[in-house]
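User: I'm putting together notes for a lab meeting next week and I want to include a structural view of one of the chains we've been expressing. I don't have a solved structure, so I'd like a prediction I can at least talk through. The sequence is below, exactly as it appears in our construct file.
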Amino acid sequence: MSHLIAPSILSGDFANLIKDIEMLNNSDADWFHIDVMDGVFVPNISFGFPVLEAINRHTLKPLDVHLMIVEPDKYIKQFKKAGANILTVHAEACTHLHRTIQAIKQEDMSAGVSLNPHTAVNDLEDIIQDIDLVLIMSVNPGYGGQKFIENTYRKIERTRNLIEKNGSKAKIEVDGGVNLTNAPKLIEAGADVLVAGSFVFGSDDPEATIRALKNV
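Assistant: Thanks for the context. Below is the predicted structure for the 216-residue chain, given as structure tokens.
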């Protein structure tokens, strides 16, 4: 399977989001990656439901929603209503992770689990067969434009081994510091989906940058 590209709209122009949405619609991007932050689980605040609903009205591609929030269970139905196709929660934020995953699936969304850089892959061993996506953070969550953590390659390899050992169909997504230098190594290590924010939206030609990442 060819790898997927999910540009992070967090790095877009908030004063002119429709322009960036139309660009992504016309690009080789596969998903829209949307980071939802609450200022509690991470030290930043981003999109709420009105913004997500507005984005959804104009998108032609799946919404890959990454929740960096406490108590995500409270909002699962609302994220479905707002347009999320894929809903990813942090393992560190869920007291009863299996219950959370089942609640996401009951709303007919794909269910993902994200791991912070310090969280061990083995924490997913008892749930890997139930999830559709593992999102590996290659920076500390909360802000765009951070430096890529080199240990990510080994973490992807361990995740790939866990998936194959358990017969899981989960995809591996990588978020943070992705660029054309590390993208080939991430894919070689086993990544299926690459999230890129500032590298795409900070480039002179975002569509060409997405195309280059897709063609790695």
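A couple of points you could mention at the meeting. The chain has eight helices and eight strands. The chain has one domain: 4-214.

User: Perfect, that's what I needed.
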